[in-house]
Amino acid sequence: MADAPPGTPYHRIARTVRYRWWVPPVALVILVALVFLLQVLVVNIAGLVALLAGSPPEGTAIFGWVVPDFAVTLILTAMMIPAALLTARFVQRRRMGSLVSVEGRLRGRWLLICLGLALCGVAASLVYHFVLNEAVTPGQPFLGPFEGAGTFAIAVVVIALFMPFQAAGEEIALRGFLMQAVGSYGAGPDEAGGGRALDRFLRGPVLAILVSGGVFALLHNYDMLGKADVAVFGLAIAWLTWYTGGIEAAIALHVLHNALGMGLSAYHGTLADAGTGAADLANLAGTVIEVGVYTGAVVLAARWLGLRRTVPGTEPAEPPAAPSA
Known about the structure:
- By secondary structure, this protein is mostly helical.
- The chain has one domain (10-305).
- Helices cover 63% and strands 1% of the residues.
- The protein is built from ten helices and two strands; from the N terminus they run αααααααβααβα.
- The chain has a two-stranded parallel ribbon.
- Helix 4 packs antiparallel against helix 10 (281-305) and helix 8 (224-244) runs parallel beside helix 10.
- The longest helix has 35 residues, at 149-183.
- The chain crosses the membrane at residues 21-50, 70-90, 110-131, 151-169, 231-256.
- InterPro entries: Rce1/LyrA-like_dom.
- Pfam families: Rce1-like.
- Keywords: Hydrolase, Membrane, Protease, Transmembrane, Transmembrane helix.
């Protein structure tokens, strides 16, 4: 199974020795088809469970209750994980771990560090919204009405169980597979035509970051300002994925960002509308603050730790023997 050569940046990992220009679009079509088939399977299984439970599906509602229906929505997005991993392994003929980082695996210690740093970014956004609320509507409660302890507790359990996989699915598909598919174009410096301006641009990270962030925004059913909000978020974590050589930083912020948003929706009893809606300039500013604080913290931490950003070289198993006299 082919691997990217040592020194390859994250967005170029898909350009292995077996790379051909037609492989990325074919792999993308197969990925979309696999996601669709897996989602159909999940919907059918959920419908069968609902039928056995005595509540046959009606329209788009499978269980007729927002919390289990929301769980199904999260699982549907999580199906991007096996689809992307299988496509990388059997279509692109490369290690599945290459979708995750330049080291071919999930860097667990770095992920935990990023989760701690993501807390700082989310906290900064919360403080901003709290101060804004006190300045604009003094005396008004920061949180809206409470839905109720029973439903809220069950919703929190569902979010904790399934939302991390939902966020990871989007990251593996968009910051992993798609970003690497776009980054695989453009001849390398040692290849024919590698010195042309177009090839130099294609093998750079800019186009891969823009496509990843743009598609991420388009997949969200928001108004234009809401899509701009999501685009800021998506572009920031796409840049961090390239800069850190893996999707751990993107997963960490995505998980905590979604945990806050979905948790508030559960608190207010608006989980059914969690995937749609509109944004305003205040929310957009909060997102800018969140990703700004987080990006700065991740860059400093990555530099301090000397985080690997390119594919490592092959180290000899044993040091070479000293030459004989």
